[in-house]
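User: Hi! Is it possible to get a structure for several chains at once, not just one? Here's what I have:
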Amino acid sequence: MSNRTAAEPRGQAGPKLERRLLLAGLVAAGSMRSSDLHADDAPEVPPDPTKEPGRPVGTPYGSPSSFATAARVLETTNASANTSWSYTPLERIVGNVTPSGLHYERHHGGIPTIDPDRHSLVIHGLVDTPRRFTMADLKRLPIVSRCHFIECSGNTLSEWRKPSAPSATKSHGLLSTSEWTGVAFSTLAREVGVTHAASWAVAEGSDAAVMTRSIPLDKLMNDAILAYGQNGEDIRPEQGFPLRLVLPGYEGNMNIKWLRRIELSDAPFMTREETSRYTDLRTNGIADQFNFVMSVKSVVTSPSGGMRLAGRGPVEISGLAWSGRGRITGVEVSTDGGASWQPAHLDTPPEPICTVRFRLPWTWDGRPARIQSRCTDETGMTQPTHDELVAANGVNYVYHYNAIQAWQVASSGEVTNVASF
Ligand SMILES: Nc1nc2c(c(=O)[nH]1)N[C@H]1C(S)=C(S)[C@@H](COP(=O)(O)O)O[C@H]1N2
Ligand SMILES: [Mo]
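Assistant: Yes, the chains can be modeled jointly so their relative placement is included. Here is the combined structure:
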């Protein structure tokens, strides 16, 4: 038996937390591998875990195994660390829900520190009774809990001109799925009394970016959640603690984090984020504005770019499919560049506006193969090829790229990003 048991219980959170933050900073600077995150925790492994007691309970909040290496991939090319983003490591996610600590992040003014006891949400404008709700007020109202994905409309924007992203994380990782818990906007609407003149609202965050987006009132009334819960616990600071607007299926940017104000009106507000940003330029020089819905989309996460198949034989093809319009009704997979398609198995019954994991057993014969997935939603929408999407929208469209993703398997087993046509 070793003189140091598996891992000593840790009483003091202080120094360890500091070390983690330091490590996180180093990871951001790109000087460390994600696996180094847990380096200081590397436990001594007993030769036979049944021959000595394990460590006792006593960790107030659990953390992943010291051997777990899934980590968000931080984007370091951006000018300012406060306006950065990080990707969900899609090829490391084994199920459908994204662990909260791996939810992608996109912040325009950094992550604010907010005391929930001093935070409130004001609803005003074209309402009968303007009101300020504290977090305690909100938590006394009826609760809704639903699983939804959130996807940045800039997800996959690297692919308009040519296949560019080296991995599924870099091509599709601005997508995550959580169970969101909170109050339906429609419940608050009854509290304040919506006037007949109201048809739009603006939602505002209390971060340094003071992010604002105009939202059609119908959408808010239909299915918007003012979420304070994520995967069964308080929403994470990165995701908007203590309160975030969840607008199922609408582009990530409209899901205002650190939500502090909703003003009802009879017209959109033409904020910065919906005029100079988050518009899509067509080839005729006219831009699409208020392009809200994230369309039907899928990606094979395994095998995917940057992986190498160990050798010929059985391989499980697996990935995620989603649509901002409703349920996924089917996913097809091709291993011959789109010449033939086979229906994939869905892990779970698809939920509306939520990802679903699909799988297809495959036998690799060692020859070059082109793997792609294509999904359909309950409105009948299906994914275009890259060439079809570019023919429709041009290459300056920036956001809302949802074409079929193709991965090329070389005879060496190496997997790379290639075009779908
Ligand atoms: N207040 C506020 N809300 C915000 C943002 C922000 O910077 N500030 N970023 C938006 C963008 S562009 C996206 S894609 C999503 C990202 O949500 P996440 O960080 O929880 O993944 O939040 C949106 N809501
Ligand atoms: Mo975004």
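Residues 135 and 141 are 10 Å apart (CA to CA). Confidence is low (pLDDT under 50) at residues 1-36.

User: Great, thank you!
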